[in-house]
Amino acid sequence: MTKRPATIPMVPNRRAAGLFAGLALGLAVLAGCSSQGASTDCAVDACTVTFDRGVDARTTILGIEAKLVGAEGDQVTVEVAGEQLTLTTGQQAAEAGGFSVTLDSVTDQQVKIRVARNPGS
What we know:
- This protein has 121 residues and is an alpha+beta fold.
- It has one helix at residues 13-31; strands at 34-36, 38-42, 46-52, 58-61, 64-72, 75-80, 83-88, 94-96, 99-106, 110-117.
- A five-stranded antiparallel β-sheet has the order 1-4-5-6-7, with no helix packed on it. Strands 2-3-10-9-8 form a five-stranded antiparallel β-sheet, with no helix packed on it.
- The longest helix has 19 residues, at 13-31.
- It is globular.
């Protein structure tokens, strides 16, 4: 009787490459998004940002910085991609640096905006 060394099943290269690519993408998304006084919910080309009021609220999303400058009533001033925008709930999207920005909601505690890449930008 001949003893053979135990073999360890190998993960197919394609499967390993897919797993590695998925992990790398997940780490890149996490590394590319930082926040202070804000939370984000992002997809491939759009993010919803919820800013806390009363603090220096800012975040980096989609390769740009977005920050809350001020809020009074239902009117909000934000800076997105280096451009200041004054937004009102329900108005059409404003343009800033190849992105469209809309104001979703304003409360005493938070401001919620949506930032999306413009097609072709």
